[in-house]
Amino acid sequence: MEDRFDLIFDLRAFEALDEFALLAHQSYNLENQGDWFGCFRGGLYGMYARLHGVREHYRAVHSWLPRPKLSGAELDYQLASIMFNMDSAIECFVYALNGLGNAVAPQDFLDVTDSNKLKRVAPWNIAGDRLRSPLGGYPRWFPSLAAYWPTKQSLLERIVEQHDVSKHRTTIFTGGMARQDPPAGFYEKLGIPDDPVVRAPYWPMKEIALRPDPKSPLAGRTPSAPEGGGLLEDLADEFRDFIATIGQKVIEDATEQIQLPEPNFRK
């Protein structure tokens, strides 16, 4: 049961992408004009760090610990941290990909040597949004990624909304359901009697409800069912699958669309 709450990300495709970028930046291939490779790898490693943060904070709210469970303030901190790390992981991914794009077709991506251009690196670059068109480099050089990205717009918007509200407005933890599956001998080792009132403070979370439309004004907001905004656990599973999918699509796009003068490392 515990493994269900260990959010493991499949990063093998990104490791292959890193290897491809390392090959691309060799002097006998695309070189390293403007230190695009530093931007790529910095963004990629930033994404790794944020995904580690998602996993650690997610585990913290769901694990059986030999102490009373997190307070409401701690739970909100953990939930807000999960949303920050999810949102930031996506941003870091785009920053990395923009770096690789600069190696191939700098005119189609945002200039990594221009600080004002770098401020515009954002998820909308890949497939656009309601107000902006995507950068031309993504449908040209990363076509399957660009086609897939809009299909997950709802997921991306929910993450951004929850993060924005937790960062700028208010708490986002509203409640949920506790776990009732302690490890064998858990209470006995802690000397906790068979009394639900005494044991309840040790129950970690099983499900965390997300508020629907968290940016709407509190005044006039109608009550919603607990599942109205969905569950963190469902969102986390979808996010984990999203990360694996974009990794697979981007390495397939890169190896198919970017032709290197020398496709193998020199000995």
Spatial arrangement of strands, main beta sheet: 1-2
Which descriptor suits the 3D outline? elongated
Radius of gyration: 22 Å
How many β strands by DSSP? 2
Give the overall pLDDT as a whole number: 92
- Reading the helices and strands in chain order gives HHHHHHHHEHHEH
Distance from N terminus to C terminus (CA atoms, Å) equals 48 Å
Number of helices: 11
Proportion of residues in helical segments: 40-55%
Main β sheet profile = 2 strands, antiparallel
Kindly name the structural category.
Answer: mainly alpha
Task: Show unreliable segments.
Answer: none
Strand content: under 5%
Short account of what is shown:
By secondary structure, this protein is an all-alpha fold.
How would you describe this structure in keywords?
267 residues; mainly alpha; two-stranded antiparallel ribbon; elongated
Give a written overview of the molecule:
The chain is mainly alpha-helical and about 270 residues long. The protein has a domain at about 35-120. It is built from eleven helices and two strands. It has helices spanning about 10-25, 35-60, 70-105, 115-120, 125, 135-140, 145-150, 155-170, 185-190, 195-200, 230-255, and strands at about 175-180, 205-210. Strands 1-2 form a two-stranded antiparallel ribbon. Helix 1 packs antiparallel against helix 2 (about 35-60) and helix 1 (about 10-25) packs parallel to helix 11 (about 230-255). The chain is elongated. The chain starts with 11 loop residues before the first helix and ends in a 10-residue tail after the last helix. The model has no long low-confidence stretch (mean pLDDT about 90).
